[in-house]
């Protein structure tokens, strides 16, 4: 379902200086799999997730999702791809702090201009699923870290994407909240979603629902 | 791009403005003030233009004055009969008029004397002549004169002080309004004999002579003939008057232009500030929206709504305030700057002129420019890779 072929990603710092974030990466991830991408900070895990989400384009190589070459998509098509297929949980959640829980969660649906009843049904589904219904109208900046993460997960799931990408999801959580997050992952895996988690948190390693572990070291699979 | 308005995007834009309420409030106030200044300048210009055009239309073709050593003297009325002998002249009408300085209000009134049985030199006076009672010492006064006289408790009559120091009591028999405020506001119309008495002008003299010429192509030639036949006269044609009126107006509009430029300058400083980029928080927000599936056009639509809400609100408010300022409050300060002689003449009322083109011009000078200034920096961020913006 997801295939990365000979992916190389370089970032140009200035005219004479480039950083190679990923080198010749080849990965295949099946539908419904839960994959952990391990590696230390700066190893290229986040870059890999960005490429799968079509948030950036590889310098060379191809990213193929459901037989579509998403690394070649023009910007608007890449947006549509993300809207319909990807739920991204960012490391720092990337919520809009001055908006309420509700307004943050429905953000991905805004361009779709859905009927208000459809929108509300989708909203109620995710806020119940992630137990934040009592916080619906609270400003995100007034939530705890764990609550903010659940809002970020709810936002990533509001449009029922097939693929969930999570970048260091437990980096800002204590062990209790991290375990609660793992319970949420179980639920999402049970729903048949493909989940890719970039992390160096040992909590995830040798976890029984993990289908595959990929280790990245200095931009290459080791 | 769907033509249907996305109400969630509008809601998002409103929320976005409310989230930055101090910035939004500040920009709205600045924009409103600029639009208010701009519209006030345009509205005053329109009103004065309207007044000037009407005044210019009623100007006589030629005015003949007696001139000696560069100074203006009373002219013999017999000369009017001689002027009629020039081919192309339809009529030559001696006028008795002059300024009366009212010390109490430090203002000049224009006194115009008219003859009941003679042809009047302009249409406005023909109408007034039918309402003036020539059998009594009465006069008709313009609105501005009425305002000043009433303020000084002269509601039924006014005492003119003649050159010999004696008093001439004149009854105020009515207030008239002519086609234009500019020409009638400071005017007092009375019988020619009363005007002569107040100015102490002999019956054989007049202030000047108005010459009417039906064929406009002949004006210059006839003016030249008059000048040749009567070297001691100053011959003023309609074109000369037009130029002097327009010069005064252009001089004033130069000041208008200065204000206009200052307004534009400030406006462009705001635009420059907007164009110079979004804050890091705003950039991150654009990146997040792209990352969760918004297209570039969705981001731009939201920014368009933000810009439109602020600028259109400021446009309406600025326009409304300027209409009230110019037409209800008569543009205090601004009007005095541009009507230079208001210190000496009763201030006239700016007539209401509704010009859709002016409203459109103000709209296009403000709303689209501000919207563009809002959209361009967002477009820059939205067209970058989302990953790059978030990082």
Order of helices and strands of chain A: EEEHEEHEHHHEHEEE
Low-confidence stretches of chain A: none
Instruction: Domain count of chain A, please report it.
Output: 1
End-to-end Cα distance of chain B, whole Å, is 29 Å
- Biggest interface: chains and residue counts? A-B, 31 and 29 residues
- Content of β-strand of chain B: 15-25%
Please tally the helical runs of chain B, counting DSSP H or I stretches of 4 or more residues: 14
Question: If you average the pLDDT of chain A, what whole number results?
Answer: 91
Structural class, from secondary structure content of chain B? alpha+beta
Distance N terminus to C terminus of chain A? 22 Å
Describe the protein in words.
The complex is a heterodimer of chains A (222) and B (391). By secondary structure, chain A is an alpha/beta fold. Chain A is built from 6 helices and 10 strands; from the N terminus they run E-E-E-H-E-E-H-E-H-H-H-E-H-E-E-E. In chain A, the strands form 2 sheets. Chain A has a 6-stranded mixed sheet with strand order 6-7-8-3-9-10, sandwiched between helices. In chain A, strand 4 and strand 5 form a beta hairpin. In chain A, helix 4 packs across helix 5. Chain A is globular. The two termini of chain A are 22 Å apart. The model of chain A has no long low-confidence stretch (mean pLDDT 91). Chain B is elongated, with a radius of gyration of 30 Å. Chain B folds into 2 domains: 195 residues, no CATH class; 151 residues, no CATH class. In chain B, 56% of the residues lie in helices and 18% in strands. Chain B contains 14 helices and 12 strands. Chain B has 391 residues and is α+β, with helices and mostly antiparallel strands. The mean pLDDT of chain B is 84. The chains are: A alpha/beta (222), B alpha+beta (391). The interface between A and B is medium-sized, with 31 and 29 residues.
Can you give me a brief rundown of this structure?
Chain A has 222 residues and is of the alpha/beta class.
């Amino acid at each position: 379902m997801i295939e990365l072929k000979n992916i190389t990603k370089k970032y140009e710092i200035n005219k004479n200086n480039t950083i190679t974030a990923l080198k010749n990466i080849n990965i295949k991830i099946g539908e419904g799999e839960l994959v952990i991408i391990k590696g230390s900070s700066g190893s290229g895990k986040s870059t890999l997730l960005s490429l799968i989400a079509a948030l950036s384009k590889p310098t060379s190589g191809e990213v193929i999702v459901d037989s579509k070459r998403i690394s070649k998509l023009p910007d608007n098509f890449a947006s549509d791809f993300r809207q319909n297929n990807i739920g991204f949980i960012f490391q720092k959640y990337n919520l809009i702090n001055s908006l309420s829980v509700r307004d943050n969660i429905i953000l991905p649906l805004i361009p779709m201009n859905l009927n208000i009843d459809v929108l509300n049904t989708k909203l109620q589904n995710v806020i119940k699923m992630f137990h934040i219904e009592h916080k619906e109208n609270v400003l995100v900046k007034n939530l705890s870290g764990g609550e903010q993460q659940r809002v970020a997960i709810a936002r990533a799931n509001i449009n029922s994407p097939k693929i969930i990408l999570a970048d260091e999801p437990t980096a800002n959580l204590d062990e209790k909240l991290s375990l609660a997050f793992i319970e949420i992952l179980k639920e999402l895996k049970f729903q048949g979603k493909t989940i890719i988690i970039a992390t160096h948190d040992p909590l995830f390693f040798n976890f029984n629902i993990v289908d595959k572990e990929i280790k990245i070291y200095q931009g290459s699979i080791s | 791009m769907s033509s249907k308005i996305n109400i969630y995007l509008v809601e998002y834009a409103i929320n976005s403005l409310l989230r930055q309420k101090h910035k939004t409030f500040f920009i709205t106030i600045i924009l409103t003030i600029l639009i208010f200044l701009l519209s006030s300048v345009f509205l005053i210009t329109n009103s004065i233009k309207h007044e000037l055009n009407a005044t210019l239309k009623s100007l006589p073709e030629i005015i003949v004055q007696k001139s000696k050593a560069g100074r203006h003297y009373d002219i013999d009325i017999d000369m009017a009969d001689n002027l009629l002998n020039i081919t192309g002249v339809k009529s030559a009408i001696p006028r008795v008029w002059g300024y009366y300085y009212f010390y109490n209000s430090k203002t000049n009134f224009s006194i115009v004397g008219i003859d009941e049985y003679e042809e009047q030199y302009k249409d406005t006076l023909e109408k007034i002549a039918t309402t003036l009672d020539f059998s009594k010492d009465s006069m008709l006064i313009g609105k501005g004169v009425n305002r000043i006289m009433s303020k000084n408790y002269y509601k039924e009559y006014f005492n003119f002080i003649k050159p010999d120091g004696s008093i001439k009591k004149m009854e105020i028999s009515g207030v008239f309004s002519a086609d234009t405020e500019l020409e009638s506001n400071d005017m007092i119309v009375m019988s020619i004999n009363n005007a002569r008495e107040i100015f102490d002008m002999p019956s054989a003299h007049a202030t000047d002579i108005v010459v009417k010429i039906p064929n406009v192509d002949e004006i210059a030639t006839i003016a030249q003939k008059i000048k040749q036949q009567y070297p001691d006269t100053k011959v003023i044609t309609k074109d000369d008057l037009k130029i002097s009126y327009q010069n005064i107006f252009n001089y004033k509009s130069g000041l208008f232009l200065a204000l206009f430029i200052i307004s534009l300058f400030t406006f462009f400083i705001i635009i420059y500030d907007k164009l110079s980029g979004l804050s890091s928080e705003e950039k991150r927000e654009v990146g997040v929206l792209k990352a969760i599936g918004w297209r570039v056009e969705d981001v731009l639509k939201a920014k368009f709504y933000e810009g439109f809400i602020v600028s259109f609100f400021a446009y309406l408010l600025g326009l409304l305030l300027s209409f009230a300022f110019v037409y209800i409050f008569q543009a205090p300060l601004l009007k005095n700057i541009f009507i230079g002689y208001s210190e000496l003449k009763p201030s006239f009322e700016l007539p209401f002129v509704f010009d859709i083109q002016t409203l459109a011009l103000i709209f296009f000078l403000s709303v689209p420019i501000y919207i563009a200034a809002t959209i361009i920096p967002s477009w820059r961020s939205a067209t970058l890779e989302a990953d790059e913006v978030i990082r």
